[in-house]
Design goal:
This protein is of the alpha/beta class. Helix 7 packs parallel to helix 8. Strands 1-2-3-4-5-6-9-10 form an eight-stranded parallel barrel, surrounded by six helices. A two-stranded antiparallel sheet has the order 7-8. Strands 11-12 form a two-stranded antiparallel ribbon. The chain is built from ten helices and twelve strands.
């Protein structure tokens, strides 16, 4: 999964348009894109969108944060639609995942869905306190599928006046990004890069996405359909990377009992094999 496109939970029209694109996943949003007085209506519309399944995309739903008191109502309303996963905003750590997982188990049973089928992706850096919970995700639940970092709400939590300048995040946000990446790697789940908000700066989007892939992120969240193709292309391996990965895998296949090998004058070992398998989507 490379691209996760947000779609407002109260807009079937935007959902239909997004479904015509090539995003790997659509995130139907019940949180920030829906005003309070339209939450109930958005739940009903989201359920209809889930049941329509217009394309091959994975379908996630971003529910409202646990501290709003609306999360369980969101889940109860949309789970009969069988979403592939839930996006939990403003998550503080592994305990939040366990709470949502408990509700999901009951709601899956009530909806005739296989227990454990619904994954959880956490937006894990939206408050100052959440940064200190990043180490608690490892082993918290087999449902945990990814950790996404976010800067918009973190800015408000910090009381900051500016997140970035010249297209470069300031140090508190770079810290949150890097720690989220490491937490995801430690938990062995997908690290997901934050949304790019300069809608028409497509060159900046490509540069930011390539930097995310370089550092280890495997996907990026998006807020505009025209970003999808650029992000998908940026996460695709280059021809040189593909050739290298194929050679590494072939070298270890020819000598399966070797821990280290010599390839093109360089020593390679099992971490290189894991990297090669990840490039080719075999990990």
């Amino acid at each position: 999964m490379r691209s996760m496109l947000f779609v407002p939970g109260d807009s079937p029209r935007k959902f239909e348009k997004a479904s015509e694109g090539k995003a790997d996943a659509l995130i139907i949003d019940l949180e920030d894109s829906v005003v309070t007085e339209k939450k109930a209506e958005a739940r009903e519309l989201t359920l209809s969108m889930l049941k329509s399944r217009p394309g091959p995309h994975q379908l996630y739903v971003r529910v409202n944060a646990l501290d709003t008191g609306m999360t369980l109502a969101d889940l109860a309303a949309i789970m009969p639609g069988g979403p592939d996963g839930i996006v939990l905003p403003k998550s503080q750590g592994g305990d939040d995942v366990r709470q949502v997982a408990t509700w999901l188990e009951a709601l899956e049973a009530a909806s005739g869905i296989a227990i454990g089928a619904t994954g959880i992706v956490c937006v894990a850096t939206e408050t100052a306190g959440s940064i200190f919970g990043l180490g608690s995700y490892k082993g918290c639940s087999p449902r945990l599928a990814g950790l996404m970092w976010g800067a918009e709400d973190l800015s408000a939590s910090l009381g900051a006046t500016e997140k970035a300048s010249g297209g470069v995040f300031h140090s508190p946000y770079r810290l949150a990004r890097d720690l989220c990446l490491m937490a995801a790697a430690a938990a062995e789940v997908a690290p997901i890069d934050t949304v790019y908000t300069d809608i028409d700066n497509l060159a900046g989007l490509e540069a930011e996405t390539r930097a995310a892939r370089r550092d280890g992120f495997s996907a990026k969240a998006l807020i505009h359909p025209k970003h999808v193709d650029i992000v998908n292309a940026a996460f695709a391996p280059t021809e040189a990377e593909r050739v290298w990965a194929e050679k590494v895998i072939a070298a270890f296949a020819s000598k399966p009992n070797s821990g280290t090998l010599r390839l093109d004058g360089q020593m390679i070992d099992k971490p290189h094999l894991r990297a090669a398998m990840k490039i080719l989507g075999q990990s």
